[in-house]
Amino acid sequence: MSQEKIIAVKNLSKKFGNFIAVNDISFDVYKGEIFGFLGANGAGKTTAMKMLIGISKPTSGEAVVADFDVNFQAEMVKKNIGYMSQKFSMYDDLTIKENITFFGGIYGLSRNQIKEKTAQLISDLGLENELNKLVGDLPLGWKQKLSFSVALLHEPKIVFLDEPTGGVDPITRRQFWEMIYAEAHKGTTIFVTTHYMDEAEYCDRVSIMVEGKIEALESPKNLKQQYKVTSMNEVFLKLARNVE
Question: Which residues form the ABC transporter domain (predicted)?
Fold first, then answer.
């Protein structure tokens, strides 16, 4: 992890009528960092992520993602990031090869680049014999691994993962995190939301949102020391009680 900022957020807010979903949050994320963005359902983390990936305009505040301003350069933000949604976003009725080709085209890759990337991706995942299999026929764990790999096709500086391991078994979760570590080691920044508190332990730093505000931002180790507990789940529970 370097000290080069890849995300810079200052006083970012989002209102829906009189309801404040995201309330004046500020934080930075650095190149090559695995940054955990945590919070209970309704805490505002998904709304905040939507602003950072350029699909929801902030009510107020500023955010720069991969050197582009989310307020004025949202389309450039989208082109320079990878994104894996909570709901599986690939096409079940297309083959693995067809999905890779389709998304490679969306990301603006040439035919040769798509061909090279497809070969590399299939080799890395060990799916040589499954290339022409419908994605809908794959187990969920393989769908998630494929979706993550496709989000990295265009070599983005940062990839946003929204609850990437929801519903998969513990072994697949661990394998998925090994993929995340490998990508971060290459210098890609990983911005990940998760409700699994044990996964928060894998992050370099975590932000914890409660009722639209960031109530804590530190490394898991330092947070556990600060709150005198042994797990991130206990940190989360203490923070929630303090706000109440």
Answer: 7-236
**Residues 162-213: tens digit of each pLDDT:** 888 888 888 888 999 999 999 999 999 999 998 788 888 999 999 999 899 9
**CA nearest 35: which of 192, 150, 149?**
192
Q: Is residue 69 included in any domain, yes or no? A: no
Give the mean pLDDT of the chain.
91
45 touches 201 (CB < 8 A):
no
The dihedral through the CA atoms of 154, 155, 158, 159 has a sign that is positive
Q: How far apart are CA 27 and CA 7, in angstroms?
A: 8
Six-digit token string for 218? 């530190």
Query: Which domain range does residue 212 map to?
Result: 34-55+80-243
Q: How many domains does one find in the chain? A: 1
Start-to-end CA distance of the chain, whole Å, equals 35
* Residue 68 predicted with pLDDT over 60: yes
> Which stretches of the chain are assigned E, i.e. beta strand?
5-16, 19-30, 34-39, 60-65, 68-69, 81-84, 158-162, 189-193, 205-210, 213-218
Cα angle for residues 41, 226, 178 (degrees, 5° grid): 60
Residue 1 pLDDT greater than 70, yes or no: no
- CA angle 83-84-87, nearest 5°? 140
